[in-house]
From TrEMBL:
<dbReference type="GO" id="GO:0008831">
    <property type="term" value="F:dTDP-4-dehydrorhamnose reductase activity"/>
</dbReference>
<comment type="similarity">
    <text>Belongs to the dTDP-4-dehydrorhamnose reductase family.</text>
</comment>
<protein>
    <recommendedName>
        <fullName>dTDP-4-dehydrorhamnose reductase</fullName>
        <ecNumber>1.1.1.133</ecNumber>
    </recommendedName>
</protein>
<comment type="pathway">
    <text>Carbohydrate biosynthesis; dTDP-L-rhamnose biosynthesis.</text>
</comment>
<keyword id="KW-0560">Oxidoreductase</keyword>
<dbReference type="InterPro" id="IPR036291">
    <property type="entry name" value="NAD(P)-bd_dom_sf"/>
</dbReference>
<keyword id="KW-0521">NADP</keyword>
<comment type="function">
    <text>Catalyzes the reduction of dTDP-6-deoxy-L-lyxo-4-hexulose to yield dTDP-L-rhamnose.</text>
</comment>
<dbReference type="InterPro" id="IPR029903">
    <property type="entry name" value="RmlD-like-bd"/>
</dbReference>
<feature type="domain" description="RmlD-like substrate binding">
    <location>
        <begin position="3"/>
        <end position="286"/>
    </location>
</feature>
<dbReference type="InterPro" id="IPR005913">
    <property type="entry name" value="dTDP_dehydrorham_reduct"/>
</dbReference>
<dbReference type="Pfam" id="PF04321">
    <property type="entry name" value="RmlD_sub_bind"/>
</dbReference>
Length: 290
């Protein structure tokens, strides 16, 4: 029986893994939360990882307050970089394989075609910089690691864009939403399925664990404006959504104007079928409305 440690199980992705892991008969799961494991405490983090002979570690924890990170640089770095370095070093000591989730914010958004894993990184925010530093630290410390970059994550769990737009759409007659930032929404449950699939294939010796950086989001492309319009359409919300430019909604941290991810690598190596973003959105909203 393989042992899997999931760090940060109280967030969107961690909760989705908890929803799915019962179907996973090849392993025993251990889940930590921010209360049971403070990842800013490097000693506690190392002790937890090395306390048992874990075979796999899934890291879902991150400092994700993008704007706040601009002034909270030290804490963002501790969680997104230093803790990831500790996870890499400690997991290497016990020969555990790591799957770590990263972000499209490692790119500056100036591309005109979907970003591949080989494209030059150039984060233009503290959040993006600390996430990139964490990626590099992990891959340096543990060669048996996978970094999964994703974008625009949402779920029926936690706070996210989908829930916010549903709430505001029900409260207001009109909303202004940015139309000049383009990317792809990602349903956290789809990402969770892929993470468990990669581990399952490795355990069953069907597809050996292939270390490195991968991109994963749902299929398709939209703006935040299109995303909102679709959320309201699926949820039967009647609200006048108006498109605005990024300059009309200034934020402390600059957002990538284009953050579409090329997913050819993960589809080729792991033979995964990736759902279209609107199909996954319908599934999530149905759960939210239950």
């Amino acid at each position: 029986m393989k042992k899997i440690l999931v760090i940060g199980s109280e967030g969107q992705l961690g909760n989705e893994i908890k929803e799915l892991y019962h179907q996973f008969r090849e392993a025993k799961f251990t889940f930590t939360t921010i209360e049971s494991l403070d990842v800013t405490n490097q000693v506690a983090l190392k002790n937890k990882i090395t306390s048992d002979s874990f075979d796999y570690i899934i890291n879902c924890t991150a400092y994700t307050a993008v704007d706040k990170a601009e002034t909270d640089k030290d804490l963002a770095d501790i969680i997104n970089n230093q803790a990831i370095k500790t996870i890499g070093k400690s997991s290497s000591e016990i020969n555990a394989k790591v799957i770590h989730v990263s972000t499209d914010y490692v790119f500056d958004g100036s591309n005109f075609k979907p970003y591949s894993e080989e494209d030059q990184t150039s984060p233009n925010s503290v959040y993006g910089k600390t996430k990139l530093d964490g990626e590099l630290a992990l891959l340096k410390e543990n060669s048996e690691s996978i970094v999964l970059r994703t974008s625009w994550l949402y779920s029926s769990f936690g706070n996210n864009f989908v829930k916010t737009m549903m709430k505001l759409g029900n409260e207001r007659d009109e909303l202004n939403v940015i139309f000049d930032q383009v990317g792809t929404p990602t349903y956290a449950r789809d990402l969770a399925k892929v993470i468990l699939y990669i581990i399952e294939k490795d355990i069953n010796l069907a597809i050996p664990f292939q270390s490195g950086i991968y991109h994963y989001s749902n299929e398709g492309v939209c703006s935040w404006f299109d995303f909102t319009k679709t959320i309201h359409e699926i949820a039967n919300i009647n609200c006048n959504v108006k498109p605005i430019e990024s300059k009309d909604y200034p934020t402390a941290a600059p957002r990538p104007h284009y953050s579409v991810l090329n997913k050819t690598k993960i589809k080729t190596i792991y033979n995964v079928d990736i759902p279209y973003w609107k199909d996954s959105l319908k599934e999530c909203i149905a759960l939210i409305n239950q």
